[in-house]
Amino acid sequence: MYHLTYLSDGLRVKGYLCLPYGWRLPISAVQEWLQAHYRIKDLEVTELACPIHVTCTDVPEGKWPVLIYCRGGIGRVGQVKTTWLEDFSVHGHIIFAPSYRGTEGGEGRDQFGGSDIEDVCSAYQFLARLPFVDERRISVMGFSRGSINATAAAVRMKQMYKLVLWGGVSDLTQTYEERIDLRRMLKRVIGGSTGKVPEAYDMRSPVTYVHDIHCPVLIMHGTEDMQVDYSHGAGMFRRLQEAEKDVTFHTFQGYGHHLPPAVHALAIQNMFAWLQKPVP
User: Would you indicate the residue range of the signal peptide (predicted)?
Assistant: First the structure.
């Protein structure tokens, strides 16, 4: 697992690159690919963890699928869960997780689904050029607020393979009404209330882009979610069905925003089983 600096809108932002379990690459190789793509020599790379049993230290042969994991929260709240990266890495995918601008020493300011969407798109473009990545099978998953970034990236990156919305916000106006504790932050970051700048909330709501989503979608949501109400997932599912999109809904009956370990592991297993199904 590597913590690295890459470019987005000319800003130096942070992210995590996690290889499939058992594979390892020298930092110099990662640095060379960053330099070749962004044409800058001083982008930092730090190795955070390596597998106990290393299968290969050379560039992996063949072409690997990728999952871009868009974290929830903002700033230090809801930062990238490196344990999730480790859990994901055993399912035969390369994992990349943008930290979003302004976080972990990155430049710029997180706009909660504004210009920070480019952090996901830039990562997609970098990953698509890696010699061991199957650019036809790059998917994106958004957890909680990350669903805003994931959906927008899937709409912008026309070749995105699949989209996963896990406990995801689908209507930010609804979130503003439901989460009184988030209103001050939302007004500060977005520039006002839903009454003052309704268009800013609409543009950050995945449900707005239902007709623009071109790839299969998996929605995962707990029925007792107190942070992002279950109606967000159910509503997005209904709207996608009405638009005749390819959509699947995994409901976690009786569970909330964060799942207990055994259920969480099963959710991950089912998510990757869905990701690995060929697209008709």
Answer: none
